[in-house]
Amino acid sequence: MPVFRLGRFADQGDGGNREKFESLPDERQEAIVNAGVELFGRNDYKNASTDAIARKAGISKGLLFFYFKNKKEFYLYLMERLMDKMTDLVVDDGFYEIDDFFELMEYSAHKKKDVFEKMSPFMLDFSIRAFYPEHKDIKDTMDGWTQAQVDLMFSRFFKNVRFDRFRDDVSPRRVLDMLIWMADGYLHQQRCLKKPIDIDALMDEFAEWCAMLKAYAYKEEYR
Questions:
Q1: Can you tell me the distance from the alpha carbon of 97 to that of 92, in angstroms, rounded to the nearest whole number?
Q2: Whole-angstrom Cα distance, residue 39 to residue 32?
Q3: Is residue 193 part of a domain?
Q4: How confident is the model at residue 16 (pLDDT cuts 50, 70, 90)?
Q5: Which residues cross the membrane (predicted)?
Q6: How far apart (Å, rounded) are the C-alpha atoms in residues 115 and 61?
Q7: Which neighbouring-strand residues pair with 218?
Q8: Which pLDDT tens digit goes with each residue over 87-100?
Q9: What range does the domain containing 113 cover?
Q10: Domain-located, residue 214
């Protein structure tokens, strides 16, 4: 099965030594990555201390900045790495056996839920903070990158979907956007209310959105 990599950050610099980082033993890499995910998950970007990340990882701050030239480069690397890992785990053999748009969306959602539950307990918090960036150093970069991922996702991962099931006046891409907007609205509301994200509740909501949009978007014989 081919593994697709999502788009890289356009302003991800080459001033660090990422190749040397990725030549480290896996356990050393994971210790540094997990420390970053935890500290960026517990704190917003501004208040995530690189000193604390280095201590958590068992390395010096100087060594962290040897591998990654600054805080921003390390943060963007974490986002790329976690998105790649998510893609590897979600886009499996079963993924490409599904030709129904809404079944594929629900399959992907539940696979992502499994990944969040099995990986770092801070991964969900890190991901949510990353998709709602507030600090000026990363906001424009993350906002632009996030939108670009939707374009890549649609072109690469929906190749086996039967779009002929959609009504002629309904755009599948528009339906994908609508599902993303609904999930975005749900997460935004929970954050505004300062409520923790209940991923099981989100899955229930997502299933209802898929059923509602399927009834709207599909030709009658495919509903």
A1: 9
A2: 11
A3: yes
A4: low
A5: none
A6: 29
A7: 166
A8: 888 888 889 899 99
A9: 18-222
A10: yes
Cβ within 8 Å of residue 179, ≥6 positions away: 105, 206, 209, 210, 213
Which of 192, 123, 217, 156 minimizes the C-alpha distance to 3?
156
Render pLDDT for 122-177 as a digit per residue (tens, 0 to 9).
888 888 888 777 777 777 777 777 777 778 888 888 989 999 999 999 999 999 99
Which amino acid, 51?
Answer: D
The tokens describing 114, both together, are 């499994």
pLDDT confidence of residue 141: 77
Q: Where are the alpha helices (DSSP H) in the chain?
A: 18-22, 26-42, 50-57, 61-67, 71-90, 101-118, 123-131, 136-157, 172-192, 199-217
Q: What CATH code is carried by the domain that includes residue 109?
A: 1.10.357.10
In a domain, 13, yes or no: no
Please identify which residue in the block is written with the tokens 């909501």: 205
Q: What is the pLDDT of residue 10?
A: 46
Q: Is the pLDDT of residue 31 over 50?
A: yes
Q: What is the dihedral of CA 64, 115, 129, 19, to 10 degrees?
A: 30
Of the candidates 119, 117, 146, the one whose C-alpha atom is nearest the C-alpha of residue 130 is 146
Tally the domains of the chain: 1
Q: What span, in angstroms and rounded, lies between the C-alpha atoms of 18 and 74?
A: 9
Confirm whether 1 is domain-assigned: no
Asked whether the beta carbons of 124 and 116 are under 8 A apart, the reply is: yes
